[in-house]
Design goal:
The chain has helices at about 5-10, 120-150; strands at about 15-20, 35-40, 55, 75-80, 100, 110-115. The protein is of the alpha+beta class.
């Protein structure tokens, strides 16, 4: 599966902001070329919460096991919660492609390097679930904020 396939899928989700830093942006150079997906119907980058999924295209400090600095490697990271994890225990190489693993840094996240045929359906399902969960959290907070501001709490 290509990065474009993931981007095309996420673009179909209502209210999603795809933060894709690049040269000239206010974001650190290490983030250039990566994607950070938020439910943000107002189009503003949330300041108090993490994205529901990311695509990273290079190694970050302390996160090199996926070997993303090698040619044509990238990783899809999805917030899945503590109770949702699929792992192929027979694959010991944390940089193996097309295999879901726990995220190397963030608990409650899963990741897959270069998702392909084997992980495609699961990747798309987990992306959708993560999007819906993020949307639900944002909408719930907005309802609580609205009811608190109008005195109905």
């Amino acid at each position: 599966m290509s990065i474009q396939r993931i981007l095309s899928e996420v673009e179909t989700y209502e209210g999603v902001l795809d933060l894709a830093p690049g040269p000239g942006s206010a974001h650190p150079e290490i983030s250039w070329g990566d994607h950070f997906f938020y439910y943000a119907p107002d189009g503003q980058i949330p300041r108090t919460r993490q994205p529901f999924a990311t695509i990273v295209t290079k190694n970050y400090p302390g996160d090199t096991g996926s070997r993303l600095d090698d040619t044509d490697r990238w990783r899809l990271n999805i917030h899945s919660g503590a109770d949702r994890f699929t792992e192929d225990a027979s694959v010991s190489d944390v940089g193996a492609v097309d295999v879901f693993r726990p995220h190397p840094v963030y608990p409650g996240w899963v990741c897959v390097v270069n998702p392909e045929t084997r992980s495609l359906d699961t990747a798309l399902e987990l992306l959708r679930i993560a999007y819906l969960a993020d949307r639900q959290r944002v909408e719930r907070r907005a309802r609580r904020s609205d009811s608190a501001s109008d005195g109905s709490e």
